[in-house]
Amino acid sequence: MGNLSIRPLNTGTVAPAKGVFYHELLYKVYNPPERMDGTPVFCFLVEGGDKPLLVDTGISDVEHAYKYHGSTRQPEGTSILEHLKKLGYAPDDIGYVVLTHLHWDHCFYLKHFTKAHIFAHPKEIAFANDPIPMSYMAYEHPIIGVQNQFGGLRLELVEEGAEIIPGVTVIETPGHSPGHITVCVSAPSGEYLCVGDAIMHRDNLKEVKDLYYNVSPPGRFSSLIETWKSLEKLKASAKAPEYLLLAHDKELISRIEASPVLS
Ligand SMILES: [Zn+2]
After folding, report:
1. Ligand 1 centre from 176 Cα, in Å?
2. How far is the CA of 101 from the centre of ligand 1 (A)?
3. Mind listing the pLDDT tens digit for each residue in 59-104?
4. What's the 206 CA to ligand 1 centre distance in angstroms?
5. Which DSSP letter does residue 148 get?
6. Which residues contact 167 (CB under 8 A, 6 or more apart)?
7. Quick check: 233 and 223 in contact, CB under 8 A?
8. For the whole prediction, is pTM greater than 0.90?
9. Domains and CATH numbers, the chain
10. Are 172 and 184 in contact (CB under 8 A)?
């Protein structure tokens, strides 16, 4: 196993409607609240390689989020830039940024990382630049008057099996969005999978025996079939459930209070 470590960084919280995390056919099974208050937006700092690597860059400042996306909380000092500053890093110190997908809450502040190689999947870049109208907001498409974070940047392309640095590889996990990827990080205790939004909530991993479901899909996706296959793939790939690191995992908040670095 590798010698890399991972620091989950919570960049703010949002309150998505229950339909984002749970397919409507599963409301009766899980009985979720109307809004999922206090949902974190994690990105992940990987240390121990030649240069620090980020998986996603997190959510925007509150002013921008309110203006274009509704309710958001970002306590003082928790934007990705402030997190890095507290850890002794300037944006220019970051060598690599790997984007699970290009939704606005995963790639904000991207333009600050001027020295980094920035990676995304070609299908994600193609769709982000030409989304269906229902996805204009998620990608902050210029057509609705918002300047997205990836426009004008040179994104490097990654597909299934690509190695970013020794110990960090990419697997394809589409469905939440067309070119969604998962970033696999080799740490001393095992391989962590930074799954982005391929798993929206830990309940998505559960079986529903009465319905013969082997997973419980979320309700928002670009493809339900791909979402389902990616959930199966991630479930089968992880050493144990705690090695799956979800961008919006509430449980991770208390977990990192006890141990802020995973290795
Ligand atoms: Zn997303």
Report:
1. 7
2. 7
3. 988 788 877 877 677 777 789 999 999 999 999 999 999 999 999 9
4. 20
5. -
6. 2, 3, 4, 48, 49, 185, 186
7. no
8. yes
9. 5-258 (3.60.15.10)
10. no
